[in-house]
Design goal:
Elements lengths: L10 E7 L2 E8 L2 H16 L9 E8 L3 H19 L1 E11 L2 E10 L12 E2 L5 E5 L2 E9 L1
Antiparallel strand pairs: 1-2, 2-8, 3-5, 4-5, 6-8, 7-8
Helix pairs in contact: 1-2
């Protein structure tokens, strides 16, 4: 499972899905659940405790559907990480109506960062954004 107990730490878990990996982020708000899902996704690729999240990268997009917004958010993060050869370890996201504005902090990959499994993209498989016992749950399967 990947649950964290620290109040400020993202709450997330993984779920089985054949050759791919399901990620689920939880939060008191929709945005916190999306941030936790991003943290879970990048945790597949690296030990995020070893990443120095020094430099921010800005993101913005429009999407009225929350489920589609989750896939867009995760794929925008992956695209930026792959383009820059970076890993992100801290996330902040806000939204009003259909407009989403976020930041991710990370650093370039370095030799001392142990690489995990490469994530190719977030998919529509088992995609769900809904209220949960922890507030909100944002989940999907990521292609590895």
């Amino acid at each position: 499972m990947g649950y964290k107990s620290d109040m400020d730490a993202p709450v997330y878990r993984y779920f089985d899905h054949g050759a791919d990996i399901g990620v689920a982020g939880y939060g008191e708000t929709l945005e916190r659940a999306f941030e936790a899902a991003a943290y879970a996704m990048f945790s597949i690729m690296a030990d995020l405790d070893a990443v120095k999240p020094a430099s921010p990268v800005d993101f913005d997009f429009e999407e009225a559907d929350a489920e589609l917004a989750l896939v867009t958010w995760l794929n925008r993060l992956l695209t930026e990480a792959h383009t820059r050869a970076w890993v992100f370890a801290r996330f902040d996201l806000r939204h009003k109506n259909a407009r989403w504005i976020g930041q991710a902090w990370g650093e370039p990959w370095r030799d001392s960062l142990e690489r995990g499994v490469e994530v190719k993209g977030a998919t529509f498989t088992e995609l769900s954004v809904a209220h949960s016992a922890l507030g909100w749950e944002a989940r999907c399967v990521v292609d590895v």
